[in-house]
Amino acid sequence: MVNKGDEVLNQFQQEKIDETPVNVAKKFKVGLIGTGWIAEAHIQSYKRMPDVEVVAGADLIPGKAEKFFQRWGVEGVRCYPDHKSMLEAEELDAVSVCTYNMTHAQCTIDALEKGVNVLLEKPMSVTLDEAVAMAKAEKKSGKLLSIGFQPRFDANMQMIKKIVESGELGEIYYIQTGGGRRRGIPNSTFIEKKTAGIGALGDIGCYSLDMVLNAIGYPKPLTITGYTSDFFGKSETYSLPENASRFNVDDFAAAFVRLEGGIILDFRIAWAMHLDTPGDTIILGKKGGLRIPSPDCWNGTVGGPMKIYHDVAGK
Ligand SMILES: NC(=O)c1ccc[n+]([C@@H]2O[C@H](COP(=O)([O-])OP(=O)(O)OC[C@H]3O[C@@H](n4cnc5c(N)ncnc54)[C@H](O)[C@@H]3O)[C@@H](O)[C@H]2O)c1
């Protein structure tokens, strides 16, 4: 006989995944747009896939793409000075868009209009208008646009959605999410509006927002009160002078969001602050509560064992 405890735990077990055999005779042709830091993760993964061939790459910085493919030992890749010329010249099945945030929308829309599938790095876009235009371009093209939220594939992250969907927490009415770093402001292209567009909010805030909104099925936001600040990024005490002088995005963001279905979302994210974490993620439902520990250096992972709080035998 299955006891009640097993019944509860069994519903969270991973189902067996059927793997279809890979056809290596037909290669999937991929191009990389942007050959900076995150492109390194993409090339490593593509190299492990026997049915994928990286045939082209583009970067705005002269010679950068060529050096990138040399460094990774990938031969015969055709390199281009920008994404448009690559899309014009190549017949591709897909592109990885690994550019800074401000060019996400243009690169994605141009690729979709050429009939090419897109794996786009997070955050999806800088503005809502861009995101809408990208979603429309995807629908019109009949191709796939996938946003690179790799935590979606993490078993712990998937568990959060499973717990919410199982009904263990009952109707959700309040969520607190976000996280942050005590000192963790990136530099390079992340700290200027002309390349990044947004700071901590887009860089790491998008992970925590996706974690909880994906779990509850992305209800529509009805009202938002938002706040951003830049005290650390602009300060020569906490940033190198050459970075402080060009810093013009947010290093902290907070928001109070009313979602459809009577759910409140309380959010805060920091690249830097005088604190270890602004709090764990909590999901409060009428039957139970879930605590998801925040990692010290927020990067879209679960920071420790999650806990569910609920009544047992009426207590
Ligand atoms: N998923 C993750 O864990 C993760 C981690 C780090 C960064 N990212 C995301 O990846 C993106 C890139 O970050 P990065 O650190 O690699 O930045 P980066 O500045 O190192 O590289 C971006 C490159 O894109 C190139 N580029 C920009 N527009 C282009 C265009 N139109 N055509 C061709 N090349 C173009 C730039 O010249 C630059 O070399 C950001 O949006 C960031 O949020 C994701």
Task: Give a verbal description of the structure.
The chain has helices at residues 4-10, 39-47, 64-71, 83-89, 104-113, 128-141, 155-166, 200-215, 241-244; strands at residues 28-33, 52-58, 78-80, 94-97, 117-121, 145-148, 172-180, 221-229, 252-259, 263-270, 281-285, 288-292, 307-310. With 315 residues, it is of the alpha/beta class. It has two domains: 28-148, NAD(P)-binding Rossmann-like Domain (Rossmann fold); 152-310, Dihydrodipicolinate Reductase, domain 2 (2-Layer Sandwich). It has a seven-stranded mixed beta sheet, covered by helices on one side. A hairpin with a 2-residue loop joins strand 11 and strand 12 (288-292). The protein is globular, with a radius of gyration of 22 Å. It starts with a helix and ends in a 5-residue tail after the last strand. The mean pLDDT is 93. Bound molecules: nicotinamide-adenine-dinucleotide. Residues 33-39, 58-61, 64, 82-83, 98-101, 103, 107, 121-122, 148, 150, 188-189, 203 line the site of nicotinamide-adenine-dinucleotide (NAD).
Describe this structure in a few short sentences.
The protein is of the alpha/beta class. It contains 9 helices and 13 strands.
Question: How do the strands and helices of this protein lay out in sequence?
Answer:
Layout: H1 4-10, E1 28-33, H2 39-47, E2 52-58, H3 64-71, E3 78-80, H4 83-89, E4 94-97, H5 104-113, E5 117-121, H6 128-141, E6 145-148, H7 155-166, E7 172-180, H8 200-215, E8 221-229, H9 241-244, E9 252-259, E10 263-270, E11 281-285, E12 288-292, E13 307-310
Helix pairs in contact: 5-6, 7-8
The chain binds nicotinamide-adenine-dinucleotide.
Nicotinamide-adenine-dinucleotide binds at residues 33-39, 58-61, 64, 82-83, 98-101, 103, 107, 121-122, 148, 150, 188-189, 203.
